[in-house]
Structure formats: structure tokens, C-alpha cells
Amino acid sequence: MDVPDGSSIPDVSAPLPTGPAKAAAVRTMFDAIAPRYDVVNRIMTFRLDVGWRRRTVGNLGLTPGSTVLDLACGTGDLCRDLERAGHHPVGLDVSWGMLAAARTDAPLLHGDALSLPVPTGSVDGVTCGFALRNFVSLPEFLAEVARALRPGGRMALLEVDRPANPVMRIGHGVYFGRVVPFIGGLFSDRDAYRYLPRSVAYLPEEADLMDLISGAGFADVAKERLSGGIAQLLTATRA
């Protein structure tokens, strides 16, 4: 799907986009921030994202040699960790800019995670890092992941979260809403890093998200809070 003419990163004063407008805005935004994406991630998370990704791969619980589809692969961080664990990753992203900036030897596909270009039951695992809030439809995404996975295959989804502790929640809100856009403006695109904190509003509440995963055909659904609850790791097994 081509980005419509005139599409841009959503203005912070406007409501969050939905449907095709959201899909176009997300693609435009990630194309824009791709060249400095890794640098900004490392700075704004104090390199915590490196450990989160390694934990994501470990919690897949797959034997070495497994074929793992990394959705919204970006510049290939998870693909590299999957390779180090002995797996065979295949990355997929809707952003040409991200794929062009990728630093991985894994095969890369340009495509939409809501319509995966893989046969039914053809992969052992699926990973996805920090992209759930960017998909137009979570139910469609989960249905496609369930279709692509073999029975008994594993899924690990890494995403931002809101700390349960009230004090941490306030501090995190200030950091995410003010400091992150400042850092993004120094090294990349300020508008994009003002939009990304707002996009957390797309995520369902915890119970609703767990129910969505179970309802899509997954068992053993679990959530692990990372670094005091500023990130979350969702894992599940294809029933």
C-alpha cells in the first residue's frame, strides 16, 4: 500500500488517526526516523532495550534452528539476537526506510503484518518489538500470527507499558511525554517522538489484551513486566 500524497506524522493537537490514515502515518513516520532510530532507542532507554530484546528471544523457548518471523523488524535488532540464539529469522516491515537501514544478514520482506506473505503453519516462532500500538487492528494482527504459526509454535511480543506503581507511573509519564520528544528532536524528528508517547493510548488495558491473545487461538498466555513496568513482554503458545 503506497502512502497517500500529503500523509504526514500526526499533529499532536489532532486526534490519533485510525484506519488507513493511521497506516499511512505510521509508515511515513518510520521512514523519517529510520536513519537514527537505533541511536535514539539506546539513548532514551539507557540501553535497557538491548536486554529486553534478548529476554524476548530467550522467552520464546524454542530449540536452536527454529524459523522465527520477526514482525515490524525495523533495523533488525531482534533478527540479530535471534541469529545469535541459533535461530533462522526472517524480518518483515512495512517501512522501506527501516528495511534500507537494517543491519542484519537475515532475509527481509517488505509487507503488512496484517497480511503475512507466508504459508499457514510455516513458522516456529513470531517476535515483534514495540509495534503493537502501530498496527491498525490488533485482532487482525493476532489472527495472522496464529495462522502463520505451527501448532505449538511460540509468540513473544515486546511493547512499552505503564508502571503499576503510582510514583513510577508519574515519573515515567513525564519522561516519556517530555524528555523522549526532546531527545528525539536532538537526534531525529521531534514530531515523531511526540507522537510515539501518545500512541500508547492505542494499547488495550492488560486484561483486554490478554483476552484478545487467548481468543485468537493461543494458550499459556503470560505477561512479564520489565524494568519496573516500563516495558512488557507477552508470550503465548499456538494452541
Task: Fill in the keyword field for this structure.
single chain, 239 residues, alpha/beta, Rossmann fold, 7-stranded mixed β-sheet, 9 helices, disordered N terminus
Give the structure's gist in a few sentences.
The chain is an alpha/beta fold. It has helices spanning 19-33, 37-44, 48-60, 77-84, 96-101, 138-148, 166-187, 190-198, 206-215; strands at residues 67-71, 88-93, 108-110, 123-129, 149-160, 218-226, 231-238. Strand 4 (123-129), helix 6 (138-148) and strand 5 (149-160) form a beta-alpha-beta unit.
Q: How does this structure look, described?
A:
- α4 (77-84) links the parallel β1 and β2 (88-93).
- 42% of the residues are buried.
- This protein has nine helices and seven strands; from the N terminus they run αααβαβαββαβαααββ.
- It has a single domain (19-163, 197-238), classed as Vaccinia Virus protein VP39 (Rossmann fold, 3-Layer(aba) Sandwich), CATH 3.40.50.150.
- It is globular and about 45 Å long.
- 43% of the residues lie in helices and 21% in strands.
- It is α/β, with parallel strands linked by helices and 239 residues long.
- It has a seven-stranded mixed sheet with strand order 3-2-1-4-5-7-6, with helices on both faces.
- It has helices at residues 19-33, 37-44, 48-60, 77-84, 96-101, 138-148, 166-187, 190-198, 206-215, and strands at residues 67-71, 88-93, 108-110, 123-129, 149-160, 218-226, 231-238.
